[in-house]
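Anyone else keep sequences and structure tokens together like this?

Example one:
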Amino acid sequence: MSLALQELLAILDLERLEHNLFRGRSHKTSWQRVFGGQTIAQALVAAQRTVEPDRHVHSLHGYFMLGGDPGLPIVYEVDRIRDGGSFTTRRVVAIQNGKAIFSLEASFQVDEPGLEHQAPMPGDVPPPSSLPSQKEILEKFGDAIPEGIARFWERERPVDMKPVILKHYTSREKLDPVQHVWIRAAGPIPPDRNVQTAVLAYLSDITLLDTSTFAHGRAIFNRDIQAASLDHAMWFHRPHPLDGWLLYTMDSPSTSGARGFTRGALYAEDGTLIASVAQEGLIRVRHQPK
């Protein structure tokens, strides 16, 4: 297990302050804002800590209101909205400096049998074993990789990634707003379903918003782009131990009004659809001085 993954699992183990209050910390990082996936995952953990163990999250919806400061703790306040016969609903507000930075609603359900179908995994995607790692991409393309992306890839992170479409990362060519990325945890995840879903929520925020820049020959790390997640929704279809590569398929149907909208689906290597995601984010073009 990488040190970065150990750190992720540690920050997901929130400190209980009181009946409905929890406190979390952030990754040690040089970035000025807390990674959105961390806030989603920690808010989900706070909600999970107030739900009966036989009920598991099937959906969550969150809104980002302020950028979090990674140097300060985040307090998560849980509102126990409803405990029904088979469903449980929780609302969580993440707070820093007395201000709400993120809110989340999550619904939990007892496992039940029912009708089954799923959309198939794209069949034309090369397997992860045939694709270069990010380190190998950096070594091969060097200065062609934008500075912001290179710095992001060079850091040790709790997940490994293998993008299928390299043109986006090596050129400013305008591309169809579709992206496929193989992604996996950088080590084994504990056999705890709540931890597995929290880690899945964490990695669901990686690369998603960037897909909305493909059609414009830009990337969220470009100096002329101001990017930030605005909301995030996720549906957990089937449990998975996260013990291998996942295919993250993404497409962006629309970018307008300085906002980009992206949909995603997470598949296991055997084609099982694990989760679906949707996100809208700020994609604002900065006017550079002449």
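And example two:
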Amino acid sequence: MTADRYTGPTIDSHIHFFDASRPEGIPWPEPNHPLHGSALPDTYWQLAEPHRISAAIVVEASPWRLDNHWLLTTLRHSPRLLGFIGNLSPFDAQFDQDLSHLEAEPRFLGLRYGNLWDRDLLDDQTRPGFIDAMKRLAASGRTLDSANPDPRLIKGLLRLSDAVPTLRIVVDHLPNAAVPEGQLADFQRDVYALAQRPNVFAKLAQIPQLNAGALVTDPGFYRDRLAYLWDAFGEHRCFFGSDWPNSNSLADFGSTLQLVRQSVADKPLAVQENFFLHNVGNAYPLPTSTERR
């Protein structure tokens, strides 16, 4: 194992913002959910700054189309927020108009679509308009983030990548993929096949795990779980995301980051730096500092 652990500037590629005090409320987290309330920039930076988080990317936590604009307005007040992954449905009558508006924003990095919000990527891409929408997203230079990985989602991403080979795809939360018993070998085979496409990336968020209700703190446990992802995607297409505030249900922010750092501490320092800082720029069209003003 390397004697050096990367502790330098880090880009957190996966956080969520919401505010239940808005007059219209929020669709998620629901009122009875432990996270119901607010998750906003000031709170995030109070937690993240002591751990050398230098910048972050926000992923939309709402299926409401107008919440893209709320999120964009929220980002404008924090220059360290590099951008956001929005949410639009290709089947919405206003999709083209909404995407045109977002495309004019440097901080708009892409759209999220997967097995979330009653969607099914495998089935939905067979419906009229979906592939055309993904071709337009690819032409804009933006990225597709997936959601809630399981065997069906990976098969959907394989099919979509074949249909739109120029589309950059980020597979979220692979360390915590929901794989039914007996399907792991087939699932990993499909992940390896997906990773053969050079414009597909692995966002290693949701790394911490519980066992018998307690947080697993053994770095070896996590290294074993992540080994096939490092092997499949390589050192230039894996990158870090905290999944804050969802991560609070497992561990506080500092513990989450410490576990992730320990889980990759066997890699050369340059590889760790790529994971925490540089690789995210390969996956997303990050705006320049001038564009962020």
